[in-house]
Write a structure and sequence with these properties.
Blueprint lengths: L9 H10 L3 H14 L9 H5 L13 E4 L5 E3 L5 H5 L1
Antiparallel strand pairs: 1-2
């Protein structure tokens, strides 16, 4: 069995004690719940599916990061999607 140490604020421990809950029970239940849930896989999203299907004809200079093997410009638009869209 593995043991670990974690710092928990006194206020949270006091709330647990008032409810009659044991921290060990809650952590074990949370771990079991985590292990039974399906993991999110970004490669299964529609956004991932369309990545790479579109090109920007005249990309802004600040987003050009190099060229690929065929000499096509490579951009980092996807890494800046929030900045660009919003």
């Amino acid at each position: 069995m593995t043991q670990f140490a974690i710092d928990i604020p006194d206020e949270l421990i006091a709330q647990l004690e008032n409810q009659g809950d044991k921290i060990e029970t809650i952590i074990l239940a949370a771990l079991e719940d985590y292990l039974t849930k399906d993991k999110f896989d970004i490669t299964q999203t529609t956004t991932w599916e369309i990545c790479g299907k579109y090109t920007v004809e005249n990309p802004e200079l600040e987003y050009i990061v190099g060229t690929d093997e065929q000499g096509n410009l490579t951009t980092n638009y996807s890494e800046n999607v929030d900045k660009i869209l919003y």
